[in-house]
From TrEMBL:
Cofactor(s) essential for the protein: pyridoxal 5'-phosphate
Name of protein: sphinganine-1-phosphate aldolase
Pathway membership: Sphingolipid metabolism; Lipid metabolism; sphingolipid metabolism
Locations listed in the record: Endoplasmic reticulum membrane
Predominant subcellular localization, coarse grouping: endoplasmic reticulum
InterPro entries per record: GrpII_AminoAcid_Decarb, PyrdxlP-dep_de-COase, PyrdxlP-dep_Trfase, PyrdxlP-dep_Trfase_major, PyrdxlP-dep_Trfase_small
Length: 428
């Protein structure tokens, strides 16, 4: 197994910084801190706080630190296994809240087309109807007028991202907050990807639009400690405006034969080691560490955006991304197929993400990307030259989320291929 990781072959080497997102820190020092925490809390389980009191305290402190970062020190939250679970839990919370407080039995939610697939997943699991609203093609922000028109008596929740996955742009959270307040419904801001970048932008000297609990109408926020918080994979935080709203997330069964059962989120037993690893990573980084990482990562992302805008006329940057993600599509009037450029980048060792509406390629800058920005731009120019010189006519870069690599499969087959792909993951 170790050889599979070390010896190259077809897999991508994440350590050289050419992978979009996926591994957010990768430093030896951080790895040692996390492993030390794992070792000490290897078998711990927060389902039993009486047996593992330190794990309970660490989880509470992770949540408290995130609430402080997002300017709601008196709010409430829980840790989960990742951004997707945080979002699914929020959807469940609003479903139960809407039923109890508003009598809504056929709940609906309104999400931007740029919102993460986890919202659709949560809605499918929880039986919620979803209205998907387009974004403004220039700003990439959700069309507020259309959100307003979609609101009806069954609406329980609005969603905005800060920032979204496809193009790294931020919705107009203030406008969404006004709508949510007016209609007395929830507004969830997805800061899973924005995580430990968004809250530090202002102090780092970058401009940023309001996005946190200070915005009137924001009732919950998801923040992934396992992205720019540099925690080990498997940790995220979902935060609520107050403890009362969090109650709707809990599952409590007082009549179970095995005893009174109460758990905060989907899992029963949970890995205390991940909580310890997350807590250790956060202590190790501290405010100043996160501030510095925000400065270097966002400077790199803004450099990429600026250099594409000024040096690469065949491409255009989507919207005005405020944080760490930059997406680029073919410039208006250009015959360039951007997915083909993505293919050529893959050949040069890059693992970028292909996104749709419009076809574009994105990179989520991590600490590993910071030193290879010049190489990215050079390779991009090279890849465009090659794509123009020998256009195949169809970029085959896979838009299957999480794969992001070349594949000869067209979009119509993607659904079947995605299922087959998942099957394959379990072939021993
Ligand atoms: C904006 C956004 N929300 C949610 C998620 C889901 O996070 P996870 O993959 O940790 O479940 C992601 C992941 O990339 C994301 O970018």
């Amino acid at each position: 197994m170790a050889k599979m990781d070390e010896e190259g072959g077809h897999h991508v080497n994440w350590k050289d910084g050419r992978v979009s997102g996926a591994v957010y820190h990768g430093g030896e020092d951080m790895q040692k801190v996390i492993v030390a925490a794992f070792e000490r809390y290897c078998v711990s389980n927060p389902l039993h706080p009486d047996v593992f009191p330190a794990v309970r305290k660490m989880e509470a402190e992770i949540v408290a630190m995130c609430l402080k970062m997002y300017n709601n020190p008196n709010g409430a939250g829980v840790t989960t296994s990742g951004g997707t679970e945080s979002i699914i839990m929020a959807v469940k919370t609003y479903r139960d809240w809407a039923r109890v407080t508003k009598g809504i039995t056929e709940p609906e939610m309104i999400i931007p087309i740029s919102a993460h697939a986890a919202f659709d997943k949560g809605a499918e699991y929880m039986g919620i109807k979803v209205h998907t609203i387009p974004v403004n093609p220039e700003t990439r922000q959700v069309d507020i007028k259309r959100v307003r028109r979609a609101i009806n008596p069954n609406t329980m929740l609005l969603v905005g991202s800060a920032v979204n996955f496809p193009d790294g742009c931020q919705d107009d959270i203030v406008a969404l907050g006004k709508l949510a307040s007016k209609h007395k419904i929830g507004l969830h801001v997805d800061c899973c990807l924005g995580s430990f970048i968004m809250p530090f932008l202002e102090e780092a000297g970058f401009s940023v639009q309001p996005f946190d609990f200070r915005v009137e109408g924001v009732t919950s926020i998801s923040c992934d400690t396992h992205k720019y918080g540099f925690a080990p994979k498997g940790n995220s935080v979902v935060m609520y405006k107050d403890a009362q709203l969090r109650r709707f997330q809990y599952y409590v069964n007082p009549d179970w034969t095995g005893g009174v059962y109460a758990s905060p989120s989907i899992a029963g037993s949970r890995p205390g080691a991940l909580i310890a690893g997350t807590w250790a990573a956060m202590q190790y980084m501290g405010h100043s560490g996160y501030l510095e990482s925000c400065k270097s990562i966002v400077t790199a992302a803004k450099t990429i955006a600026h250099r594409i805008r000024t040096e690469v006329t065949e491409l255009r940057v989507l919207g005005n991304p405020p944080a760490s993600v930059v997406a680029f599509a073919a410039a208006p009037g250009s015959s360039l197929n951007v997915l083909e450029v993505g293919d050529k980048m893959s050949k040069r060792g890059w693992h970028l993400n292909a996104v749709t509406n419009p076809a574009a390629v994105h990179i989520a800058v991590t600490r590993l990307t910071v030193p290879v920005v010049d190489q990215l731009i050079a390779d991009l120019k090279d890849a465009i030259g090659e794509a123009k010189l020998s256009p195949s006519g169809n970029g085959t870069m896979m838009t299957l989320y999480g794969l992001g690599q070349s594949s000869p499969v067209g979009p119509t087959m993607v659904g079947h291929v995605a299922e087959a792909f998942l099957d394959t993951l379990y072939k021993a």
